[in-house]
Design a protein that fits this description.
globular; mainly beta; disordered C terminus; Nucleotide modification associated domain-containing protein
Length: 279
């Protein structure tokens, strides 16, 4: 089984602020702005009673993101952010160089993506959501996705997937696929094939007191080759590559146990997360 550590959501270039760790533990990955995807606006996505646009404006009043700005909702693994067809399955698209990298690594059905991104703890001060003062910037794993199907032709896209950003006709002019999630996670059959996590320290990649790309991986990873990450190991840490979306490795026994510990039922979101409302 291949595991893909997949970097997603707001970063220092796209969005330019950390995604929030909400007070209820929700890891709310903010999808990157995208003029290419007119179907979904930040104001169309909701967590409880607030839109993603509301949340962004509270966290960053000077954000360049405006109410009518659109975003790239991908991976699409949080079911409750907008209305869905009943037959909807979690999905994730990839294209161009990033897709070629996955193909060169022979990523396919049964392999597992662990989505991570830039996060910071938040809290309410004077009835306003703000970043917790002095909270560190962290790389955190916020969700997982086991590949159950691969759509690599526009003609094979089902009707329920028609709003996915990778369905657009011009994307098929380049290497482009849409992955759909398995019904169940093979490592933990009691769990769905894709889901988001509630915050837990075991999901934090960043080494305490360090920059977010300096990770505290278990020592057994020293014997594992991770794509895009040559010479990343230092004496007491792993410094993740600054470039590249998809870091692929073959899971050994240690990695499988590490992943099972991360994908634990008590921190996997139910299909409908706790509502998030103004207090």
């Amino acid at each position: 089984m291949k595991i893909i550590l997949s970097r997603k959501g707001f970063d220092s270039q796209y969005g330019q602020i950390p995604s929030p760790i909400l007070s209820d533990g929700t890891l709310l990955s903010l999808p990157i702005p995208s003029k290419m995807d007119p179907e979904v606006k930040f104001k169309d996505l909701h967590h409880g009673d607030l839109s993603y646009y509301d949340i962004i404006r509270m966290l960053s009043p000077r954000s360049s993101i405006k109410e009518n700005h659109t975003c790239h909702l991908d991976p699409d693994i949080r079911s409750e952010v907008k209305e869905r067809p009943m037959e909807r399955v979690p999905s994730f698209g990839q294209e161009k160089a990033a897709l070629r990298h996955l193909q060169n690594q022979n990523v396919g059905i049964g392999d597992v993506f662990l989505f991570f991104g830039w996060f910071r703890q938040t809290q309410y001060i004077d009835n306003r959501l703000v970043y917790t003062p002095n909270a560190p910037d962290l790389h955190v794993i916020y969700g997982y996705f086991q590949v159950g199907g691969i759509i690599n032709r526009m003609a094979d896209v089902p009707a329920w997937l028609k709003d996915h950003p990778h369905v657009k006709a011009d994307r098929w002019n380049n290497p482009n696929v849409i992955f759909t999630a398995s019904q169940r996670l093979s490592l933990c059959p009691g769990l769905p094939g894709a889901a988001c996590f509630q915050f837990d320290n075991r999901l934090v990649l960043t080494k305490s007191g360090c920059k977010r790309s300096t990770w505290d991986l278990p020592d057994f990873f020293r014997g594992i080759s991770i794509s895009y990450n040559k010479n990343s190991w230092k004496e007491d840490c792993f410094v993740a590559a600054s470039k590249g979306q998809e870091f692929v490795f073959e899971a050994n026994d240690g990695a499988v146990e590490w992943i099972k510990n991360i994908i634990s039922p008590e921190i996997v979101n139910s299909p409908h997360s706790i509502a998030f409302t103004m207090r």
